[in-house]
Write a structure and sequence with these properties.
alpha+beta; 3 helices
Length: about 350
């Protein structure tokens, strides 16, 4: 082959390779552009589910005893021992504490001796009185001394008995306020006994909302400390508002079978309003619902291929940030809640 022919072939091959490279680069750029155009749109989604249990207003409450009794000695003295502890269950008449009774016993001994002496004198003078040898005035005086001695004896007996403190009612010991060795004053509480066969849940309700709560308004009460849920009973409404917070205290009676609810526990209280949607209804966020030009409502539903489709819906009553879906969606459907402004029919999405 001549050099001239070789140059022609070489030049032709070079042009062919350059052309092929150009076509390849053009195709690559086209595919890259096509890939950019097909990149999915990032959105936030939510699965259509049952109505969240957010019916009515929810407040924080505190569990209180139905009734509290402060148990105290009736006289001053040094406490010898306290026989109960906080949280202990006690019955009516059970011994709670004892006071040092040394002085009370001495006074009782003296009163017994004085009473015995007075009654002995009464018997000796009785024979004289019956024989008419004792003036009536002296006989009346002797009878008065006997009555006085017997009265002092009864007082001494009671003072000794009062050195033993017993429970006037049954219940749970709330607080132990005095210990052994301390001096108890009259009417100073030694322990408090709480009746918790039923309890009350105290809630502060704003004045703007108190009008919507009646004596028989249904309530749902949750106490996380014992992982327990309760149905509230009759409601007691306070009539005086707090001057600072403008709230009213209300108390909800709650049956306390098993005595699991204890005073001081924090409770979540929900007042269930009439007409609330039943648990199990299909609910979606209000912000997910859009309006078309013709006034109809729609949401963007994502199918299993992660493609967004405009879906017409019929809605009902709102519950907080959610709205009831009457028609158009099923439980488990996934809808777009954020980023729907960038969508059009058939848009691929990622979430």
């Amino acid at each position: 082959m001549s050099n001239f022919a070789a140059k022609i072939i070489k030049t032709t091959m070079k042009k062919y390779l350059l052309g092929l490279l150009a076509v390849t680069m053009a195709c690559g750029c086209g595919n890259q552009k096509k890939d950019v155009e097909k990149a999915p749109t990032r959105v936030e989604t939510e699965v259509v589910g049952a109505a969240p249990d957010n019916r009515g207003q929810t407040y924080v409450g505190i569990v209180e005893e139905r009734e509290g009794t402060a148990v105290s000695f009736t006289s001053m003295g040094v406490v010898k021992r306290v026989l109960v502890s906080e949280g202990q269950r006690v019955g009516k008449g059970q011994l709670i504490a004892e006071m040092d009774d040394t002085q009370a016993r001495n006074l009782l001994t003296a009163a017994q001796a004085q009473a015995a002496q007075a009654n002995d004198a009464l018997e000796r003078y009785r024979m004289l009185h019956d024989n008419g040898s004792l003036p009536e005035v002296q006989w009346v005086e002797i009878q008065s001394k006997v009555a006085q001695a017997n009265s002092q004896l009864e007082v001494a007996r009671k003072n000794l008995a009062d050195c033993r403190l017993t429970a006037p009612v049954g219940g749970i010991v709330g607080k132990k306020l005095i210990g052994a060795g301390e001096t108890a004053m009259p009417s100073q509480a030694v322990v408090s006994i709480l009746n918790i066969s039923t309890v009350k849940v105290k809630v502060a309700v704003p004045e703007a909302e108190i009008g919507g709560i009646g004596a028989n308004t249904p309530t749902s009460i949750r106490v996380d400390a014992i992982d327990g849920s309760y149905q509230g009973g009759r409601i007691e409404k306070g009539v005086a508002a707090d001057a600072l917070t403008h709230t009213y205290d209300i108390r909800i009676n709650v049956a306390n079978d098993g005595r699991r609810l204890l005073p001081g526990m924090v409770a979540s209280v929900r007042f269930i309003s009439e007409g609330s949607q039943a648990i199990g209804s299909k609910m979606i966020p209000v912000t997910a619902v859009q309006r078309q030009a013709d006034g109809s409502l729609f949401v963007w539903k994502v199918d299993q291929q992660e493609t967004a489709h405009r879906t017409t819906v019929t809605i009902g009553q709102t519950e907080g940030n959610y709205v009831l879906v009457k028609d158009g969606l099923n439980m488990g459907d996934r809808i777009v809640t954020e980023g729907y402004q960038k969508l059009s029919e058939g848009t691929k999405v990622v979430f």
